[in-house]
Design brief:
The protein is α+β, with helices and mostly antiparallel strands. The chain contains 22 helices and 14 strands. The chain folds into 2 domains: about 260 residues, no CATH class; about 180 residues, Alpha-Beta Plaits (2-Layer Sandwich), CATH 3.30.70.20. The chain starts with a helix and ends with a strand.
């Protein structure tokens, strides 16, 4: 019964969290966006004290339920482990914990988190790792399926579905996602939860807390006959059936052992005993390691303080087709509205790719710079930041992009436009275009005659940088290609206008 409840809850959480990365309409975020915000590391970075306290209490009460139900990367490992079990049953055995590696990875994670080495944090953080897998590997498949339904529906004069562009946002991030899922599959298929209990810093941190959990699986030595069936089905390899001992720091409370025991010798029940030296339910002495308590306390304190060519992109209601646009590499990168500054975004973002995958305008791209690796930056080769959209700020679970209203967005200057005179067709072709001025969302661009005008019909853009908010409409809709004759440069700290 307990296993059924756990599996059902895990499937629900995993499915909905996955759909948060796959749903391009933004509908699910309105109802279930909170599931991304209850992940441990995003909660720490956003200083969501309520969520942090609730997760710690949950672990102290029931053990590592977080790892087996809430964490999508953990549930994915269970799926791979299930496939491995179909190939070979009763394939696990007890193995001692590789403590030095676990604590080393946790120490590296905490040091990098405090020191601001964000690319290592983003690689090790489990929720973000799953986000990259969902965004780069699962999302294209989901979008292709949607496009197939849209094609079939259109043939029957139905528009219940609509086609979306499927494109690779970044080959490097895609490669990282492939390596991650490959590593997870091999480890989980062969050894169950070995990734959780050796590499994952969240698993190690919660494992330290779960050693003191009130409810835990316990072995009744009066009923156990030492058959070892529990140990051979423990995907965490944490049951020593010969000594009747369970390593609770590695146990994820999956309930598999309870379901496999034919003598009902393993029960999930309230822990008995207190004091420095206690008797666990197996009747064996349990020595509390004071050093680990100190390490736990210190850790808690620190922790709290796809593949197709790009389709033609129709924009502005289909009035213009932009082909072969290339994003200009800016000296100062552009960050989304709602991120107060480049520094703020870098310090709080875990590169989960949720905002990137949720952007309906294809403006957000993963960064390839080491300092901000895989974090979102804005480019305007495929679209521009429409003033009526605040999707990225509404889905961010860490507060890297703070919630922002449509009204506030119109008054936030993330950058400003810069005109390149020698590239403008008014100078190169001798014709007046005015595309940038017509499509400027704030009226910051006016078409004026040049100082030495040979014809009153030839106009060039004049930019009011005080009114420009850096939406990128001018850059995206400029007919000059591959690089636009007008582009947006970012501000290190966003300004209010």
């Amino acid at each position: 019964m307990l296993k059924t409840v756990r599996v059902t809850a895990a499937i629900i959480f995993f499915t909905i969290i996955s759909l948060l990365f796959l749903d391009f309409t933004g509908t699910l975020h309105q109802w279930f966006g909170w599931l991304a915000k209850i992940q441990l590391v995003p909660a720490i970075l956003s200083v969501n004290v309520i969520v942090i306290v609730l997760l710690l209490i949950l672990t102290l009460l029931f053990g590592r339920i977080y790892c087996s139900v809430i964490c999508p990367l953990g549930v994915m490992q269970d799926i791979f482990t299930w496939f491995g079990g179909k190939a070979k049953k009763n394939r696990f055995s007890f193995s001692p914990a590789i403590s030095w590696l676990r604590y080393l990875m946790l120490a590296i994670f905490i040091i990098c988190l405090v020191a601001g080495v964000h690319f290592i944090v983003s690689i090790l953080e489990p929720y973000s790792a799953y986000g990259r897998i969902a965004s780069n590997l699962m999302s294209p498949i989901y979008d292709w399926g949607n496009n197939l339904f849209a094609y079939l529906a259109e043939r029957y004069n139905s528009y219940a579905f609509y086609s979306v562009d499927v494109w690779i946002k970044n080959w490097i991030v895609l490669s990282v996602a492939i390596v991650t899922i490959g590593l997870l599959f091999v480890l989980a298929f062969l050894n169950g939860r070995s990734y959780c209990n050796t590499i994952c810093p969240v698993g190690t941190f919660l494992g330290l807390i779960s050693k003191f959990s009130l409810f835990r699986p316990t072995i009744d030595t009066t009923q156990c006959n030492g058959c070892g069936l529990c140990a051979r089905n423990c995907k965490c390899s944490c049951i020593d059936n010969k000594k009747h001992v369970i390593d609770y720091s590695r146990c994820v409370v999956c309930m598999d052992c309870i379901g496999k025991c034919k003598r009902n010798a393993i029960k999930y029940k309230l822990r008995i005993g207190s004091g420095k030296k206690t008797k666990n339910d197996e009747g064996k002495p349990e020595i509390i390691d004071k050093g680990k308590r100190v390490f736990l306390s210190s850790s808690a304190i620190i922790a709290v303080s796809t593949i197709i060519s790009a389709q033609e992109k129709k924009v502005d209601g289909g009035l213009a087709i932009i082909k072969d646009k290339k994003a200009r590499e800016n000296v100062t990168r552009i960050t989304p509205p709602g991120s107060p500054s480049i520094k703020h975004l870098a310090q709080h973002c875990t590169a989960c790719q949720l905002c990137i995958n949720s952007c309906p305008n294809d403006v957000l791209h993963p960064s390839t710079e080491l300092e901000t690796f895989m974090q979102p930056i804005m480019k305007f080769d495929k679209g521009y930041c429409r003033p009526e959209c605040n999707e990225c700020s509404s889905v961010c679970p860490t507060g890297a992009i703070r919630p922002i209203t449509i009204e506030d967005k119109s008054a936030e200057q993330i950058g400003h436009a810069v005109w390149v005179a020698e590239m403008c067709i008014a100078n190169t072709e001798g014709v007046s275009c005015g595309n940038c001025g017509r499509h400027c969302t704030t009226g910051a661009i006016h078409m004026v005659p040049p100082k030495e005008a040979k014809s009153e019909e030839i106009l060039i853009p004049a930019i009011d940088t005080e009114k420009c908010i850096g939406c990128g409409a001018c850059e995206n809709l400029c007919p000059v290609s591959p690089l636009s004759a007008i582009y947006v440069t970012g501000h290190e700290r966003h300004r209010k206008i």
